[in-house]
Amino acid sequence: MILGPSGENIYPEELEAVINAKEMVADSIVMRKGGELVALVNVDLDAFKERMGELRSNVTGEIEKLRAEVERYLGEVKDRVNSEVSSYSRLSKMIPYLEPFEKTPTMKIKRYLYESEVKRAPT
Questions:
Q1: pTM of the predicted protein model
Q2: Of 122, 93, 120, 105, nearest to 28 (Cα)?
Q3: pLDDT tens digit string along 8-64?
Q4: CB within 8 A of 20, min separation 6: which ones?
Q5: Is 43 left (phi over 0), alpha (psi -120 to 50) or beta?
Q6: Are strands 36-43 and 25-33 parallel, antiparallel or unpaired?
Q7: Other Cβ atoms closer than 10 A to 43
Q8: Which phi and psi (to 5°) does residue 82 adopt?
Q9: How far apart are the C-alpha atoms of 39 and 97, rounded to whole Å?
Q10: 115 with 102: CB under 8 angstroms?
Q11: Cα–Cα distance for residue pair 122/32, rounded to 1 Å
Q12: How far, in whole angstroms, is CA 115 from its chain's centroid?
């Protein structure tokens, strides 16, 4: 649970369920960064490659195009998610994460492994 700015209880799992229901989102983790809620989002890269047409991922310029497209799409997802949740649960940023999250044997994401990833991300 995350405590909101006015004492509200924010349950990351509820926000993650809304994010994960969006097309081309494989998984997500919601955390607090500097008093704001941010989501680290793992996208389905195969779906993005298909969406953008044939893309050879071994060419650096094309990887950058893919990353830019993912970031643009996540901006749209953030707007849709924020329109579906309460005002105190709104996300300030979605950070793309291009590798699958490491999980426990019960298929829960090992959140502690990704805290530094969120803290390191630019605001």
A1: 0.83
A2: 93
A3: 899 999 999 999 999 889 999 999 998 899 999 998 888 777 776 654 544 456 667
A4: 26, 27, 28
A5: beta
A6: antiparallel
A7: 25
A8: -60, -30
A9: 10
A10: no
A11: 14
A12: 13
Tokens of 52: 């953008």
**What is the distance between the alpha carbons of residues 46 and 22, in angstroms, rounded to a whole number?**
15
Residue range 90-104: mean pLDDT, rounded: 92
Q: Which two tokens stand for residue 98?
A: 């291009």
Encoding tokens for residue 18?
Answer: 């809304």
Residue 42 CB partners (closer than 8 Å, separation 6+): 25, 26, 27, 28, 97, 98, 99, 100, 101
DSSP bridge partners of 40: 29, 95
Which residue do the tokens 């998984």 mark?
27
Nearest to 31 by CA among 102, 99, 106, 121: 121
Mean pLDDT across the chain: 86
